[in-house]
Write a structure and sequence with these properties.
Layout lengths: L2 H26 L56 H5 L3 E8 L8 E7 L4 E7 L1 E3 L4 E2 L15 H4 L2 E2 L4 E4 L8 E2 L3 H7 L9 H7 L1 E4 L8 E3 L3 E4 L7 H17 L7 E4 L9 H7 L3 E3 L7 E3 L2 E3 L7 H4 L8 E2 L2 H6 L5 E2 L1 H12 L16 E6 L21 H13 L6 E6 L6 H9 L3 E5 L15 E6 L7 H9 L2 E6 L7 H14 L3
Parallel strand pairs: 7-9, 10-14, 11-12, 11-15, 12-13, 16-17, 18-19, 18-20, 20-21, 21-22
Antiparallel strand pairs: 1-2, 2-3, 3-15, 4-7, 4-14, 5-6, 8-9
Helix pairs in contact: 11-14
Length: 507
Amino acid sequence: MTKNNSWLLKILVFLFALNSLSLCLYFASHSKTLTPPTLTPHPQINRLPLTDQTHRHNYRFSKPWTILPSYLPWSQTPNAPFRSCEAYFGNGFTRRVDLLKPTKDSGSWFRCAFSETLRSSVCEGGGIRMVPERVKMSIGGEVLEDVIGRGEEEELPEFRNGAFEVDGGVGGGEERGLVSREFLDEYVPRGDIGKHTMRELIGSIRVVPSKEFQCSEWIEEPTLLVTRFEYANVFHTFTDWYSGYVASRVTGLPSRPHVVFVDGHCRTQLEETWKALFSSIRYAKNFSGPVCFRHAIISPLGYETAWFKGLTEDIACEGASAPELWQHPDDKKTARLSEFGEMIRAAFGIPVHRQRIEKQASGLNILFVRREDYLPHPRHGGKVESRLSNEQEVFDALKSWVSNHKECKINLVNGLFAHMSMKEQVRAIQDASVIIGAHGAGLTHIVSASPKTVVLEIISSQYRRPHFALIAQWKGLEYHAINLAGLYASPSVVIDNLSRILRTLGC
């Protein structure tokens, strides 16, 4: 064997060992997060006949997690520095409090893990009973056209005491509240949120004697309880998706959870992603009677994520690759947004291990994300506010320029997202080399972009907001902005910016 062949063999052996170690840590990390305690079935609890008590963790109806290139272990680390990137975007929920532990005559339990950085908690429990009739809100899940004009206050939940209950055991004494006001102020602070529905949900939980803890239905598999605000807006829904993903990872769920919407919103196009990302969705008011959850996780509000908090506070994090952070940990860098973007792509069956080739034989895709009129929710008139007064003119100018561009083949993609399925939108983002668009929620999709995609945002003077510059920064994407004096963009200026970007891509 020659010297070169010997070195090659050593390198291959090293890479094989490194890959094996990474896979071991990937699967082992699930057992190191918050693990539900072992429960003792209570003989007096009413269960459905089809409930399988002997294979409680054989989740037949839950979707498995996908192995992601950017995945890093979510193991609970008590030394995650305050306001580090991991504390903002990963598992900074390190201060745990047990509010109810299972006993020999009660299987209920409840606990919370608090993040000092985000000032919010991921709470979870087992043997939790929901009584839908004690939650005041509309039914939810209706067809949009059937509820035109319905007020938002009708759709957001109001919880009566006992809307949620836990089993206090045979000798549990009189009914009482699970948490105090002092606990809520410390672990689920209201902050600047006017109506904090998750705080109100937890505040409604009552501890009741076993004889009063009866259920018409048991949900055996892990379930996220979610309340959505601005549920038809893509950016705000992304914060809800991310919050649910983080809560699932922090609590170490072995598979993707089911989702129960504890709100009364009607259906939207965005439910396509909810269904793809999680195991199933259902509305709380769709249950015919009290329902018990074997394992329920209360997802923090989207307003409590770093995505939203970053609009008003400085989150100085840069996106980096998972292999880089694995070898060289850095509190100022994160791969969590790349991981989440890959999770969305994988949820739709879009390959995540094969990254976009720089100069495909079919040419470079330039995706122009458009804003169109559509009806997103019952209180909307169907007319989208313009962020770029001459959008069609800019698109037509780009189309003409691309057709005459001889240096390389370019495909200009007309991103009419309002008329595309969510899967089609995600695929268009992934296939793009450059993404152009006026400031608008549709640009939030850049979280699913390939690593070397370039973003060019056109920002009018009325909408100088940092949403997409921040997402690009936290994901590690190259970002450029054209700041307008008003709502009009000179097509030649847009073309000049695009031309400079393409030259850096070798085109």
